[in-house]
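Worked Example 4.2. Consider the chain below.
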Amino acid sequence: MPNTQAVGVAFADPQFSSLFLGVSTVAATGSAQTDAAAVGTGFTLVTGADATKGVILPAAEAGLFLVIKNADAANAVLKVYPASGDAINALSANASYNMAAKTSVILVAYDSTTWYSVPLLAS
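Applying the procedure from the previous section yields the following structure tokens:
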């Protein structure tokens, strides 16, 4: 017989009382997945986008998430590449996700090969 009762779980852990993201600034580089600047988890402010330069995500791992802000001063697109063999949204594996200037995106890894974007308003 399956359990149909609702179960609640509560715990207190000081490590998880607040969510803090690491922050970093990275200059976009290269013109392909192989020479793009690496970003890590947390919040990354990316400078230097010029419609050809980009950044590369870490390998997808279910539940991993990060935030990228294209802080380009020249109003240019930033190319965001997945790690080799990974994909972003419905794009093919290794294809870049192009971010408009002055926009931000939350990227969430659904599994070990797929990232999904949650676009944020320009600011």
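The longest strand covers residues 114-120. DSSP finds no helices and ten strands in the chain. Compare this with Example 4.1 before moving on.
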